[in-house]
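for the writeup, i need someone to sanity check this before i put it in the appendix. the sequnce is what the collaborator sent (i think, or maybe the updated version? ugh). structure was predicted straight from it, no edits. if anything looks off just tell me and ill rerun, i have time this weekend
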Amino acid sequence: MKTVILTNVIFILWLFPNLSRAQVVTVSGYVNNSTNGEAIENVSILESNSGIGTISNKNGFYRLVLHGSDIQLKVTTEGFKDFTQQLALSADTTLVVKLEPKADDKRRQKKTEEIRAQVKPEKKITDRRTWNLF
């Protein structure tokens, strides 16, 4: 009886680490602007099923370590259209995401305005009345 219990315990201890190692995948890559190819920083990359997420760095690089093979990746940032992709992964994956700018985003459109100002001459006060109260 003790041998059966000991065998079962050893089998369970051997089984769990092997199962957890098989399910870990890494998704990494870059987020770029689709119009000019520049890297986009501070982009939110979220795996919707698990809630695990990260933010891209100044070079647009991101890295996610995920448990599971079926993922839904959602990439969002202000001024660009959202990107969502369903993926079935079996190994570590590199994914380059190219985001499209929103057409109505006024922050990204360069605008030149002419400013006119009129300067008035300085007035000198020569006659000042003073009051002595004490």
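Residues 20-99 form a domain with the Immunoglobulin-like fold (CATH 2.60.40.1120). The longest helix spans residues 2-22.
thx in advance!!
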